[in-house]
């Protein structure tokens, strides 16, 4: 495939260029998870649909195209990263006791802890079966009565799904497996840091790079591998993903203090109630004087009712300048992500990836 020479600035709306890809992903996601099915399948559909931003699947698709590959053959891999992501969110809500996700009851709130744990497990384990759908050798096929062709694991096979060299698929499997472990490491580290405003920004950034960055790296590096990218191209997209993941998480940590919970779809009190030392809080703690620092510690230490704690934190973020500093640092990470795309041929795909970096620090949810 010849990559067109298209600069990001030459596209009036790069994200609009991604609309057909997003529509393809949504159609395939809906087709793979019909409404009428057994209980575990129905709960999994509830977790997956209506879909969130589908950012990670989009990153995989665009990364594959950016190196000269992509197309329908990588759709199963793109969906598999969404299964891993959503499965981890289901488990996050169990761990944190969050009752809202994407503006409606979380899986654990609606179906209970047992079903939530099993659903998260099923999505994350099923990811590997879906990821391998695109390999040239899919193994024996079976056909349900009147239904579509499926592999032995029940994964839907489209006419365009085959054709990826098995070696590339194996490389992506390795990347995704490592990402899953890194995600778990980040979750464990987040628990270790809980309530510790003195943990420092370096430890926070390590945790964020594991918990949030893992799936960004998996999507972009996996896409580059599946698309047949060179080692240099894989490195460029992995570096892009690392900075994008930090920018995304830094901005995500700001949303409870800059956006309405009706927009974000999640309670603004969640981070405070869980005593999470998020990026703006750590900056505030580092920038504050002793009296303000004491007030911040009291707000996160449970000394105040949750709503009062949220008001106190918002006030301190403003008066210390931490809110502005956090925005600036998130934007700097997004800019670094875009700079990592420079070694790649300019194309529609790299324009979309650059626009995603900008969106990561301008969104309100």
UniProtKB/TrEMBL annotation:
It holds the Pfam family polyprenyl_synt. Its cofactor is Mg(2+). The keyword rRNA-binding does not apply. It comes from the Bacteria. Keywords: Magnesium, Metal-binding, Transferase. The keyword Metal-binding applies. Belongs to the FPP/GGPP synthase family. This is Polyprenyl synthetase family protein.
């Amino acid at each position: 495939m010849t990559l067109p020479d298209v600069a990001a600035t030459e596209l009036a709306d790069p994200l609009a260029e991604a609309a057909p890809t997003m529509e393809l992903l949504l159609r395939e996601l809906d087709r793979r998870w019909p409404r009428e099915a057994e209980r575990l399948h129905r709960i999994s559909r509830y977790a997956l649909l209506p879909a969130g931003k589908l950012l990670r699947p989009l990153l995989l698709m665009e990364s594959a195209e950016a190196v000269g590959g992509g197309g329908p053959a990588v759709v199963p891999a793109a969906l598999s990263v969404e299964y891993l992501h959503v499965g981890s969110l289901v488990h996050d809500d169990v761990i944190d006791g969050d009752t809202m996700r994407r503006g409606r009851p979380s899986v654990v709130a609606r179906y209970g802890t047992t079903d939530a744990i099993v659903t998260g497990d099923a999505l994350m384990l099923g990811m590997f079966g879906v990821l391998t759908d695109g390999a040239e050798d899919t193994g024996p096929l079976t056909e349900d009565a009147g239904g579509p062709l499926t592999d032995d694991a029940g994964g839907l096979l489209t006419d365009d799904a085959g054709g990826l060299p098995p070696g590339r698929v194996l490389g992506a499997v390795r990347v995704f497996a490592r990402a899953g472990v890194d995600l778990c490491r980040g979750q464990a580290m987040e628990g270790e840091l809980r309530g510790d405003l003195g943990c420092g920004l370096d430890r926070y950034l390590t945790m964020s790079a594991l918990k949030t960055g893992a799936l960004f790296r998996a999507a972009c590096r996996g896409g580059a591998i599946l698309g047949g990218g060179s080692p240099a191209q894989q490195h460029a997209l992995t570096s892009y993903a690392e900075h994008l993941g930090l920018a995304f998480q830094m901005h995500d940590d700001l949303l409870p203090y800059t956006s309405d919970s009706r927009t974000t779809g999640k309670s603004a009190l969640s981070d405070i109630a869980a005593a999470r030392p998020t990026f703006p809080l750590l900056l505030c703690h580092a920038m504050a004087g002793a009296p303000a620092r004491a007030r911040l510690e009291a707000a996160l230490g449970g000394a105040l009712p949750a709503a009062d704690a949220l008001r106190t934190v918002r006030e301190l973020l403003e008066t210390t300048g931490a809110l502005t500093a956090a925005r600036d640092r998130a934007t700097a990470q997004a800019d670094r992500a875009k700079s990592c795309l420079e070694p790649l041929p300019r194309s529609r795909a790299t324009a979309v990836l650059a626009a995603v970096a900008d969106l990561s620090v301008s969104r309100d949810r």
